[in-house]
Write a structure and sequence with these properties.
Blueprint lengths: L1 E3 L7 H13 L4 E7 H4 L9 H12 L3 E7 L38 H18 L5 E5 L23 H15 L2 H8 L19
């Protein structure tokens, strides 16, 4: 199989020529990158004309297709209207990842709702497509060795969304500040002041 993604593959004529070249060397399966920014340029406004044409062409030429729902590179695959928290280091700062910018926090509820809607909309439209055999959903956050030390090979997030999620978890678990204080053996007077634990510090 082959994977094609990015603006240089969006021209129909070029796409067709590449499929012909792949078919000539015996390849019959491709991974088609579905760029979120392309198919949902405005909230709830989806455009599938290009995908429909290109998947129809793939069907006619005998290819099977895996749809890759891309949203992992904020620079050009995530719509500009998406407003969400970024994954943060211990000190609250946000570093760039490679050349593509920071990752969104997986704890942000607005982000989760928007991304889930994108996934579900694409899946509903193409689940019965003759060429499509599977959907691939890449992760949306990077291993933290790109952004956070000494937390190597862990997913760590100290964004406001992560803190709010941690506070919500504690409220659901303990119910009252009194029970929370008793469990942690310290006086806690405000849920919003509780921060995620930081087991390590920079030397």
């Amino acid at each position: 199989g082959m994977t094609a993604m990015g603006p240089k593959f969006r021209d129909d004529a070029r796409y067709e020529s590449r499929l012909k070249a792949l078919r000539e060397i015996g390849i019959r399966g491709i991974e088609y990158a579905v760029e979120w920014a392309d198919v949902e340029p405005l909230p709830g406004c989806f455009t599938f004309a290009e995908m429909d044409r290109q998947l129809e062409l793939a069907t006619q030429m005998g290819f099977t297709v895996i749809l890759r729902l891309r949203s992992e590179f904020p620079r050009y695959t995530i719509p500009g209207w998406v407003d969400a928290d970024y994954l943060c280091q211990q000190d609250g700062t946000v570093s760039g990842l490679l050349a593509s910018g920071p990752s969104y926090s997986p704890c942000d509820e607005d982000w989760i709702a928007a991304y889930t809607n994108f996934q579900q909309t694409v899946a509903r439209r193409y689940a019965s497509n003759k060429a499509v055999v599977a959907f691939k959903v890449p992760q949306n956050i990077r291993e933290s060795f790109w952004i956070d030390r000494p937390f190597r090979y862990q997913f760590t997030d100290y964004s406001n969304s992560a803190a709010a999620g941690f506070q919500k978890y504690l409220q659901e678990r303990y119910g009252t500040l009194e029970k929370m204080s008793s469990a942690y053996k310290e006086q806690i007077t405000d849920w919003s002041r509780i921060q995620p634990p930081q087991p390590y510090t920079d030397a």
